[in-house]
Design goal:
alpha+beta; D-amino Acid Aminotransferase, Chain A, domain 1; Dna Ligase, domain 1; Rossmann fold; 3 domains; seven-stranded antiparallel β-sheet; 14 helices; 20 strands; binds guanosine-5'-diphosphate; binds manganese (II) ion
Length: 433
């Protein structure tokens, strides 16, 4: 039994997604650093800039000749990445404000390509200018959710720096994990066990222990799903600093994490998926030619299976969930049609909470407004299905309505194939109901 109104209950609820809806908001490094600072955790001094001139001013202000310019793009492995221009590395160690300006110019508004970014790369929307610290030891520390034990877990390694995935592969013994008992949090005993794995000198251990406890406090209070510090550094002066931080937050908790939500940089996300999320829709792009509008993750899977069974390939699927209105259905259609290769649309709705007549209304409006010239096959079942059918029939639109899944799937595959072939040879086809 989960106690009411407790932190524990909320952690439990947010960490066990029953549905494929868990989204993780990610923050730019400079925002993450500011958040860590709020918790009294050591981070290098610095500030973010949107232009090379601003970057220069920050460098002057920092009044140091040992500086780092860091590309702010939501991807990991920036140090080993490169830009579309051929310019190397998203993390540059520099030694003058002039150099800061020059390097910032090479990074800002260019695409940073890393192991994690995909071939297209991520646009650099800001640069983070920080004081350069000299490392005695670089370690790795993260707090993540352990799905097996259903608790938060600390992952720690003395082999920090760039490539923790490589360490995991080649030297897995160098990585240690510790489950956190959510009723106790990170106790001094646990913090001391973890700190002992960092490879730090005895002088740095007390601050390391303190940092570990504060990181967990931040993790729990901010509804984070992940905090990754790589490197967690002991400087030559035995100071413990988070040199790089990556956060993930549970989107379902953002209603009570207003400042975290306000730090979102939507320019770093897929614009179609952002539009979908705004309307409470889940949109996933695939590589076939049949667009799918469904409700519920289970039905989405079944829909894709049955399309494949009849020899077709889904282009995407859009899960409109339970709260769909005619307006969100129209948005859904627009999203499905963002991909030019869609040659047919399959609407598969099982009306429980969602009303079939709302879906029909949205469908009709979309077909009208978007001047659809590809076939729509709709299989509607459940709440208000009679009303929905009536609406479709009276609309005068060519919407193929079905009650059975098999015949509907067969039809949509058949029609999309015809359109696909016609497109390939450059002829227009019309189809009769
Ligand atoms: P990532 O490649 O995206 O993980 O970016 P990081 O912020 O981790 O930077 C890559 C690497 O640059 C780090 O692992 C450090 O080795 C190095 N680096 C970054 N900032 C500093 C700094 O202030 N001092 C020193 N000595 N190295 C730094
Ligand atoms: Mn890093």
């Amino acid at each position: 039994m989960i106690p009411r109104n407790s932190r524990i209950a909320l952690t439990r609820l947010t960490k066990v997604p029953t549905y494929g809806q868990l989204r993780n908001l990610s923050l730019h490094e400079y925002r993450s650093a500011a958040l860590l600072k709020q918790y009294g955790i050591g981070v290098p001094k610095g500030a973010a800039a949107k232009t090379p001139e601003e970057a220069y001013a920050i460098a002057k202000e920092l009044n140091s000749y040992d500086l780092v310019v860091k590309a702010q793009a939501l991807t990991g492995g920036r140090g080993k990445g490169h830009f579309e221009t051929g310019y190397k590395s998203g993390v540059h160690l520099v030694s003058s404000p002039e150099q800061v300006k020059e390097v910032s110019g090479e990074m800002l508004h260019h695409k940073l390509i890393t192991k994690q970014s995909g071939a297209a790369g991520k646009e650099v929307t800001a640069v983070f200018i920080v004081e350069r610290k000299f490392a005695r030891k670089e370690a790795y520390l993260s707090i993540i959710m352990d799905r097996t034990n259903q608790t938060p877990m600390i992952v720690v390694s003395s082999e920090g720096g760039m490539d923790i995935e490589g360490v995991a592969k080649e030297n897995p013994d160098a990585i240690k994990t510790f489950d956190i008992d959510i009723n106790k949090g990170v106790t001094p005993e646990l913090a001391s066990k973890v700190a002992a794995c960092l490879g730090f000198s005895p002088k740095a251990i007390p601050q390391a222990e303190d940092t570990i406890q504060k990181l967990y406090k931040c993790f729990a209070e901010r509804d984070a799903t992940q905090i990754e510090i790589n490197p967690l550094t002991e400087t030559v002066d035995h100071e413990v600093l988070c040199i790089d931080a990556k956060f993930g937050f549970d989107d379902n908790a953002l209603f009570r994490q207003k400042d975290v939500a306000s730090w979102r940089d939507v320019s770093q996300e897929d614009p179609d998926e952002v539009t979908a999320a705004k309307s409470g829709l889940n949109f996933i792009k695939l590589d076939g030619n049949i667009g799918c509008l469904v409700n519920g993750a289970g039905l989405a899977m079944a829909t894709m299976d049955i399309i494949k069974l009849y020899g077709g390939k889904p282009a995407n699927f859009l899960d409109c969930g339970g709260g769909a209105t005619p307006e969100t259905i129209e948005t859904a259609f627009k999203l499905i049609l963002t991909e030019a290769n869609v040659t047919g649309i399959f609407v598969n709705i099982f009306g429980g909470i969602v009303r079939c007549d709302y879906v029909a209304e949205g469908l009709i409006a979309a077909a009208h407004n978007l001047k659809l010239d590809i076939p729509i096959v709709a299989r509607l079942q459940g709440t208000n299905v009679g009303k929905a059918k009536e609406l479709i029939k009276n609309s005068g639109l060519k919407i193929f309505a079905f009650e059975e899944l098999d015949s509907a799937a067969e039809k949509v595959v058949q029609l999309s194939d015809i359109i696909q072939k016609a497109r390939e040879v450059g002829v227009k086809v019309s189809f009769e109901l």
